[in-house]
Amino acid sequence: xxxxxxxxxxxxxxxxxxxxxxxxxxxxxxxxxxxxxxxxxxxxxxxxxxxxxxxxxxxxxxxxxxxxxxxxxxxxxxxxxxxxxxxxxxxxxxxxxxxxxxxxxxxxxxxxxxxxxxxxxxxxxxxxxxxxxxxxxxxxxxxxxxxxxxxxxxxxxxxxxxxxxxxxxxxxxxxxxxxxxxxxxxxxxxxxxxxxxxxxxxxxxxxxxxxxxxxxxxxxxxxxxxxxxxxxxxxxxxxxxxxxxxxxxxxxxxxxxxxxxxxxxxxxxxxxxxxxxxxxxxxxxxxxxxxxxxxxxxxxxxxxxxxxxxxxxxxxxxxxxxxxxxxxxxxxxxxxxxxxxxxxxxxxxxxxxxxxxxxxxxxxxxxxxxxxxxxxxxxxxxxxxxxxxxxxxxxxxxxxxxxx
Length: 404
Description:
This protein is of the alpha/beta class.
């Protein structure tokens, strides 16, 4: 019966969150039609949902003990809760067969691995980079900075021209996290939050977190962000960038799609977050998180067919089509082709991502809920000057140590 989680031999229930958005719908329709032709013996009971409602829907099914066989999931704490509850099937033996596991970016597979076992296959990945308008930079003779000191010096030049150096709309709290995390990564190194999540007794953000918060506060105090940025939406900040009122924007690779309606003459380009002098981290590391993954329920009666479905969905052919339709990088090696991705996204995938020492997942999705809230409120307070950087660092550290 459509919508039920149980399935007999040759049948699988499959839940996904690709409804409600044209590019997502186009992809999943392509993938499932192709699967039906390649494997006519495996029948799928497909249950679609929109991203906003999906998490609640899946959590309810898992809590009721009636999970779908194969399903879309998120990495980090969301997946981790199911693993802790013994509800996920470990994929390690399957990934070891015929080199399937080797087709994934190792750093991406690590984000769906817990306690040394892989519990889902990663599908797509978003990276945070600096975006700029090549035409605006050429007009003013500006060059993409290689060091953080050069970035701050450029911001001062931009401000001197009467423009906003960095677009930022932090009303929803997450946009400013890229600033703090990159500075923490450059100063301390990647994996700091992951160490807390993995219950490493030596895990800490300190002392570098105080420095990272202080640097973010300094940017705000110097007026490098828009007036009222803490109450401004990400969409409003994006308009400042696209209209040439702001010179740069630190944002995810979804910015390519968000720039489709830019005025004529706008030419999107990117550069890596610059190196921080004296930083102990690998300065090539990239803030990049797995956005979606697929897993199999431990209760699934037909795990062989479930694995067949996952292998098909993550095949190079299907993943390249994903890139073509959604203009998003995927976790399968060499599937993000230039023809499918376009020059801007391909440049990031083939350059920045391949040369990265590590990919560090987004802190706010990796953290447990209460720690994420402490992170958001502390960072907003630092930005508006109401919270001291050292106090913010301690609050986030304490929240992570509490593990909630």
